Each structure stands twice: as structure tokens, then as C-alpha cells.
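Lab meeting prep.
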Amino acid sequence: MVPGKDFTMKIGIISDTHDHHRNVKRAVEIFNDAGVAYVLHGGDIVSPFTAKAFADVENAKFIATYGNNDGEKLYLNSMIQSFGGEIHPYCFRGEVAGLKVYMTHVHHTIDEVARGGDFDLIIYGHTHKQDIRTVGNTLIINPGEATDWLTGQGHVVILNPADLCYEIVKL
């Protein structure tokens, strides 16, 4: 057994929802079916009304970062706080399910942060393209867009924090 890691919990990872309500509802269903304990959103939720849908993920902590398209930041923050979630400007640094996590929207510093070796998991969005790779001992995940507007397919990732195995799920 690895100290500090819960072998039963899962993490749902999503980014760039851009008010695509149908795909957000589908993501919530997937997260509920998987029994995720956390939902990590890499930015560009866009509106408070989209954020509200994440309140329907059962028994999960919602953590997000702002993206470059998020509007109404004060109301977006208020909405997320109303269901016990949190949203961070620029980046989130913290522990999630025994993992040291760095999450941001943009990709500009991802490789540099990973080479520093301070984090087990780095999550980002913005590019709308999936990027899942390892740099040193750090797993980097961009789940790609949750919309289907640029790539034609929306996706989320379900991560097991105990062994860093993941599943890419099409929306």
C-alpha cells in the first residue's frame, strides 16, 4: 500500500467546456457512473450556468482554474462556491487524493513545471487537443476539449490516483 493514497477513489478531469451543456451533462453522468471523488476542470467553463451543472456530480469535490474565455468571474466563483467547489485564478497547487497537483489553463509553462519534479500530476487545457504524457515522474494531462467544436469529439479522463492509470472517455 502506498502511504497517503486512496486506492478506491477516482478523479474526473475535464477542460474547455465552453457552455456546451449537452456534453457537460454527459460528463456529469460519466463522473457519477465512475464514482469520482474529485472533478478537476482545466478552465474555460465560460458561464455560471454551466458551472452549476457540476453541482450534480455526487459526492465529489469540484476544483477549477479560470480560463481565458471565462466571463462573469465573480458570479462564476459564487456559483461554484455555492456547491462547495473552488475556482482559482491562474493555477491551482495542492494535494488531491494523495497526489501533488498543479493545474492551469494555458500550456506555456507546463514542461518547465514538470521538469521541476515538484508535482505528481499536471492538468491543463486551452489547446483543445489531448496531451497525455509523462515527464520524469510527472503525469501531464490535457483531456482535450469537452466540446466537439474544434476537434469533432469531446472527451473527459478518469484517473486512478493510486497508480496513475487513466481512461479516456468520449462524450
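Slide two material, second protein:
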Amino acid sequence: VGYFVFGLIGSGAGYLVIPVVSHVWAPTFLMPVASALDLSAALAINRTSTRNVVRAELHRMIPMAFLGAVAGVTLLVSLPRGAVLAVLGSAAVFFGMLTFADPVPKVGARQGWAYVAGFIGGACGALFGIGAPPYQIYLARRLTDKAQLRATVATVVFFSVGSRLFLFALAGLFLAREFFTFLLLFPFGALGLWVGSR
């Protein structure tokens, strides 16, 4: 179901997957597995929609997303599980309220917000596996074309998740057990992505 949503909007699997599965798996196990699934999904979308990507937005957001991911991974390995889950719940409520408060965003955000969205998205992605809301909140106020919005969000997610997964591997959080779990879940994510994309 999470990757059905990803297929529709170019991100968003974490909205469903992370809050539910975090009741079963520790964040330090869940985040690398979810990141590997997100990377696969973003790569699949990028292969078919590169012509719609707005590259100028990527140049502003991607470097900051990497710095945010460094900060997020550092916090993930140092904070206790209860603190990470409390912040995850608070972030989910905040982004949900923000969406309800402004369901049809007006276009016209300043370019400088790209740096803020990139950093916060990178940090939230590493900590909670839900990094796309800041990207979407910013880009929805910059791009009017749905295809451009979906493709640009998916591309930022691809680079952000790729750097996050690399950092997880450096921190010793993406090893054989996590990789095997990713392989078990991959067919289900791929099916959801295929249906959502259509």
C-alpha cells in the first residue's frame, strides 16, 4: 500500500510504512530497509520521467539534503528509541496538520526555501524514513505541472535516499540482515509501485 502511494505521487511510502512498522522493528533496523525500498522505487520512477524533472530545483535541494542526512544518521545512532519514536509521532502530526491547513498550496515560494526544505527533508528521512514532506511542501509551491512535481520530488528522494543509505552502511546499519529483509519486501513494493504508477 505504501508503494502504491509512491507510484501515485513520487514519494510517500513512508507515511504509511514507517508509523506502522515502527511498532514491530527498531528504527535502526527499519530505516535502512525502508531506505533501500525507497531508493528502488525512486529509481523506477526516474527512469521513466527524467524529461519532467526541473533540474534547477535539484541543484539547490540535493546538497542540503545530504547535509541533513548526515545530521539525521548521527541523531539516529545516538538518541534512545523512545525519543526517536516521540519525534517521529510529532513530525507526522505536524506535517498532517500543515497539509490540512493548506490543502491547495499557492505557487510562489522563494527559491531560498529550497535549502531549508533540503536540509529538513534529509534529516527527517534519515531519522524517520519520511523525508519527502518538506520537499513536497516546497516544490508544490514552486511547480504547477503535476508531472514535473512528481518527477522532481522522486529525483530529490532518489538522491536523498541514496546518500542516506550510504551513510547507514558507513554506520554499520545496513548489513546482511537488513539487505535480506529488503529482498523479501521488494516484490510487494514493486507491485504497489506498478499499480500506483498506472
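Talking points for slide two:
The chain has a mean pLDDT of 86.
The chain is about 80% helix and 0% strand.
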